[in-house]
Amino acid sequence: MSWTTEPRTSDGITERDFVIDGPGGPVPGVSWSPGDRPAERLLLLGHGGTADKRADYIGEVAKLAVGHGMEAVAIDGPGHGDRVVPGQAPGHDNFFEVWERGGGTTGIVADWRATLDFVESQRTPRPTGWWGLSMGTMMGLPVTVADDRITVAVLGLMGRWGPNGDDLMGLAPELGCPVRFLVQWDDEIVPRSACLELFEVLGSNRKTLHANPGAHAAVPAFEVVASVEYLDRYLG
Fold first, then answer.
1. How many distinct structural domains can be found in the chain?
2. Rounded to two decimals, what is the model's pTM?
3. Rounded to the nearest 5°, which phi and psi values hold at 107?
């Protein structure tokens, strides 16, 4: 596990790439942190299906997090980004296969725990949160349940659906940290009913549901901004 690039600072944000040794092979990641001071809090960012650690919206959430004095960290999920198997880029028709080939829920948890171990080895442990929608929830809910270093989460756009839908429903009652859960009312990919079903069984007694009209990828910008402010409050 090591840094693979020197720090690059632009517009007050320092960016640096790293790689960890995951159970299924190397897992590349990226860190964003304030360029003028140490970050006293940490935010893990889970990208959506067919996206990657450098998706535009991940970069926007990272920028918001850094603006609140956090370090933000993202990795490529299995079969995504720099982990794409040649000729097998993830898409809607092969998403289940890509997920399982990458180790499924167990592999995801191992990847993220190793990532958090590496980031913490560079500094002392810090208050840590999770932000991830869609596939970011497929990863984030199991990781947050498995690792009590994560104490608050923003999840959503997911339910009993996809390759680990049953895993999510089984783990959700064990999730006790504060959760903000986002739903798109006209979601054409993950049925609204599936999202509401997952929210209902989340074990936290500090959970809030935020629903907006629109398609799966049409989460309003104000909702994204507010979700980072929510994390800021709980990680304060």
1. 1
2. 0.96
3. -65, -40
